[in-house]
């Protein structure tokens, strides 16, 4: 698929995310890899439900520099980190859904464990509900460089797959293409809702 068609698909995905309410109040950020050295990242302060292709900025992966001087998302450094760590990644979606945000705080450990759900098979490589899928959770930090270093250190020991949560903040989700990243996001959001509902029922 060409870069232009992938970008059009990403814009459509952003509108879908906005309609779901997963990026309220201009929150969240999305990106698309162009090549080994550059990616497109959403401009800061834009409503994800009404983005256009002009709202994506060309960013260098090595240093987060933007050629035209506009301001990319404050969390661009996490997008470029994912592309550097995982060269096969083509798209990163960062959302702020209620389920992801609440679960990331309700789970006090270093990862959210998902087990026993058929929808786990929406994640690339997952073949059975019997496996345990671990979604890492990192404590939130306004210092994005410091947060990126913690994510990179974790990846060296336990390679990232599908995505990770930032506590009290939201989900970073990725895939080899826009379609795969969207499927991972949709599947994970369903799994998060199931897990949060299960915990609430068990707490009664």
Describe this entry's structure for a reader:
The chain is 38% helix and 21% strand. The protein is of the alpha+beta class and 204 residues long. It has a single domain, classed as L-fuculose-1-phosphate Aldolase. It has an 8-stranded mixed beta sheet, sandwiched between helices. α4 links the parallel β6 and β7. The chain starts with a helix and ends with a helix.
Mean pLDDT rating: 94
Using the alpha-carbon principal axes, give the shape: globular
Based on the structure given, which CATH architecture is correct? 3-Layer(aba) Sandwich
Question: Major β-sheet, in short?
Answer: 8 strands, mixed
- Under CATH, the homologous superfamily reads Class II aldolase/adducin N-terminal domain
H/E element order:
HEEEHEHEEHEEH
Low-confidence stretches: none
Portion of residues in helices? 25-40%
Number of domains: 1
N→C terminal distance: 49 Å
Tell me, what is the CATH class? Alpha Beta
Per the CATH scheme, the topology name is L-fuculose-1-phosphate Aldolase
- Please indicate the percent range of residues in DSSP E strands (runs of 2 or more): 15-25%
Query: Helix/strand/pairing class, anyone?
Result: alpha+beta
- Enumerate the strands of the largest sheet in spatial order, edge to edge or round the barrel: 3-2-1-4-8-7-6-5
Instruction: Round the Cα radius of gyration to an integer and report it.
Output: 16 Å
Number of DSSP helices? 5
Number of strands: 8
Q: What would you call the quaternary organization?
A: single chain
